[in-house]
């Protein structure tokens, strides 16, 4: 993956610096305020900063990862993201450790009561819309599980073992071809999309990037380990039914077994993972440190709210008859 095109003054300055050798520099210009979750420039800049901790960019020196001036820039961007999350999500009240599991289930149930994108994909979406959906999801699914894995060394005892158990399944139980990221690549290939890592980074909107950025934010900061656990639990608790719909929708649109396997795998795996995540990981973590129960629920609430806002963006564009991406078309690999 190479650096994408800049989307404003922050990324223009940042990408110009990243194209050269690591050096001290003042942070890029950042306009105060504004809706950070809808700011393409800010979210792309933060995504690029985080990506240096993952697979990086072919045209960026790996030594930038821990360059102090870049970390200072990242901290400013993170502050804007954290502030936006706090404005969007009312922090749930802390609960006793024994009630964490029920509180998580309550948050998930509230989300499932809303009209869903998965229901639209199941019944109404055409093939191009499903391909757009997959393009959005590729930003996370091609490195699925990696952001939450950062939390493993920040935990101990039962919660750590629970997270490792979930992540081991995400990584295919030691079989590369069963890694969820690899299964998703097969879905992309089956839809005639470019399955290379980060191929569509320059095409997705700010809210799609914000979903991944929030995972990285929670995973990379020890102070947010509770939020990381709650975030993962929320994804697992709300996964099985939507993925069943995605699999059925893709079959309706002509998808073959290789293309639908990613979604079918999540129907089964996440039915188990949701129990481990809610009970062993989150309730266990709250039992170890009751002060984290509020953070756990906040992380879950952030995950659900971001997914809802992203779905609203996609559906609003589709109702207007336009693409939900930042281009007029979805680029495809030769079929």
Automatic annotation (TrEMBL):
InterPro entries registered for this protein in UniProt: Haem_Oase-like_multi-hlx (IPR016084)
Region (Disordered): 16-35
Pfam families, per the entry: Haem_oxygenas_2
Gene3D superfamilies in the record: Heme oxygenase-like
Name of this protein: Iron-containing redox enzyme family protein
Organism from which the protein derives: Nonomuraea rosea
